[in-house]
Amino acid sequence: MALIVQKFGGTSVGTVERIQQVAEKVKKFRAEGHDIVVVVSAMSGETNRLVALAKQISDQPVPRELDVILSTGEQVTIGLLAMALIERGVPAVSYTGNQVRILTDGAHTKARILQIDDQRIRADLTAGRVVVVAGFQGVDAHGNITTLGRGGSDTTGVALAAALKADECQIYTDVDGVYTTDPRVVAQARRLEKITFEEMLEMASLGSKVLQIRAVEFAGKYNVPLRVLHSFQEGPGTLITIDEEETMEQPIISGIAFNRDEAKLTIRGVPDNPGVAFKILGPVSGANIEVDMIVQNVSHDNTTDFTFTVHRNEYLNAQQVLEATAREIGAREVIGDTKIAKVSIVGVGMRSHAGVASRMFEALAKESINIQMISTSEIKVSVVIEEKYLELAVRALHTAFELDAGSSHNE
Ligand code: ASP
Ligand code: MG
Prior knowledge:
Elements: E1 3-8, H1 16-31, E2 35-40, H2 46-57, H3 63-87, E3 92-95, H4 97-100, E4 102-104, E5 113-116, H5 119-126, E6 130-134, E7 137-139, E8 145-147, H6 153-164, E9 168-173, E10 194-196, H7 197-205, H8 213-222, E11 226-230, E12 238-241, E13 255-259, E14 262-271, H9 276-286, E15 291-296, E16 303-311, H10 315-329, E17 333-337, E18 340-346, H11 356-366, E19 373-377, E20 380-386, H12 390-400
Parallel strand pairs: 1-2, 1-9, 2-6, 3-6, 9-11, 10-12
Antiparallel strand pairs: 4-5, 7-8, 11-12, 13-18, 14-16, 14-17, 15-16, 18-20, 19-20
Helix pairs in contact: 1-3, 2-3, 6-8, 7-8, 9-10, 11-12
Magnesium ion (MG) binds next to loops.
């Protein structure tokens, strides 16, 4: 018998019929003798609807009141699911974040969980009840309702699993696991049996949308075994663990992530003095613009070019800031490009294998794809390329690293 936290996302509880299906599933699980805590999101579309309602009243809703509104979405689904369970003869009880007491800081709309009181839940489990908890919400030390940021129910699930020392946190969603890359881009993409927290974190921050980044961080920190599964299809899903040894059989690269959300800015003919990088990037971060990749060229004639990427939404802001800087420091010009994409290969296997980056560059060269920028970390290599080659690049890399379904490495 195990203690399992099961989290169901918005599409999994998107209709009454689906809520009934979830109840059936939970009932079956419980019949196997497990203790179960269920965390649910709001019905799909509901949180967006609530945001839109608030915006009809105020362009910039007061965060405290917005949280009061947003938290209602999950309050509806916990009540409905608990009722559906009770209708099936399964003892169940629902709790809001406040009722459990999921204590958070006071950062409305992006609060962090500080502490979870497990007493009430433990008492219910001992009494044989399924406990249904509202995702995405908590309460601060002053009793104000808080929410955890969009997608925050994943974090609630993981945090509850950590607090209860659950045997597993299962995230049920509309895909059957974590894939080597987006199956819409590469038809041969395949589900991973296992992936490490570190790899999952890279994949999530590089654009894979299966799990909320903060939830993965939390799971890694507290070593909560996490499994991504399809809500309504049978299958083992993907296990996310700390265990590198057991994944050693895998290819060097676990996955390929990509995103189209970045834009590139270059300031040219910068006088190359000490402090130049700070002079350029200081005002950018001063304007609250996050910078991703950075490249400074080797200088000649005492001037250099300096290139960095930002989120595409911040492109115009960054360009303005940079133009002011260019005038100030006497740089030649500012140029930019929004039609870029970032492609990254991710894998802990890189630590023990040389030549991974060059294999990546070779695969791109074979397709005549020009690499504009490169950055590396211990378990990742990222390149910036022209956006129109994105899909070609991802496909070529997927094949080059033998990730395609049916390729020799993964039989
Ligand atoms: N309902 C919230 C959202 O849509 C939280 C979640 O689904 O995880 O972001
Ligand atoms: Mg979600």
